[in-house]
Amino acid sequence: MIDLKQLKPLPESFYDRDTLLVARELLGKYLVRRYSPPGLKPVDLVAKIVETEGYHMEGDESCHAARGETKRNSVMFGPPGRLYVYFTYGMHYCMNIVTEKEGVAAAVLLRAAEPVAGEEIMQELRGPKITRKLLCAGPARLCQALSITTEQNGIALKKPPFYVARDPGAAEIDESAMITTTRIGISQAVEHPWRYYLKDSIFVSKK
DNA sequence: ACTGCGATGTCCT
DNA sequence: GGACATCGCAGTT
To answer: Which of A19, A107, A143, A204 has the highest count of CB atoms within 10 angstroms of its CB?
Structure first.
């Protein structure tokens, strides 16, 4: 069990690095989002990231920024450490964290997480029939569990009410505990092995 | 366990 | 008009 009060927000410099390195290092980090359910006091929704994917404007046709800047993807071109949220399939949201320096469009898609705190609220946001294992197992499910929409697009993940943190007491996760594989849902573009997940986690979107 | 399909906004050709 | 960084449900094996 971790002490949530000990969690330290990651600095912007964490994200201002190679996208695939950031994608790996985000595994095991904590996503913390303060959320106010209608009529109730704010609650910290906390989830440990267990699955990520990297996307990069260079050499990656499946990246939203591969064909230049648009209204939708403009946050990817901005400074690192910002949230990039997009709407897809007419009903789902997916969230990314922008990486690399301003002007280089790249990001890490958060694909799955392990519920750590605020699970009751996540359950209400996801619906009563959803099992705990599936609360945050998938990019759109994770957004639904944390109530993320394009309203949060572009915000800086630097401090409360919304940030990513590490547990100072936890060791860095060894690469031997991770699986590297191809990304999910890419059908047209040449695929890259830019998906990472924690080998022993039951909370990943797919094995 | 596996397969097919409907939902449906935004961007791209 | 088609594809899409998806999901949940229904139907079948």
So the answer is: A107
Q: Which of residues 23-42 of A touch strand C (CB under 7 A)?
A: none
Please, which residues have CB within 8 angstroms of residue A129's CB and are 6 or more apart in sequence?
A: none
* Distance (Å, whole) CA A6 – CA A121: 22
Nucleotide nearest to A66 (CA to C1'): B12
> Of A146, A183, A131, A149, whose CA–CA distance to A23 is shortest?
A183
Q: What is the pTM of this model?
A: 0.97
A109 CB closer than 7 A to any strand C atom: yes
Largest Cα span, chain A = 48
| CA dist., res. A180 & res. A195, Å (int) | 6
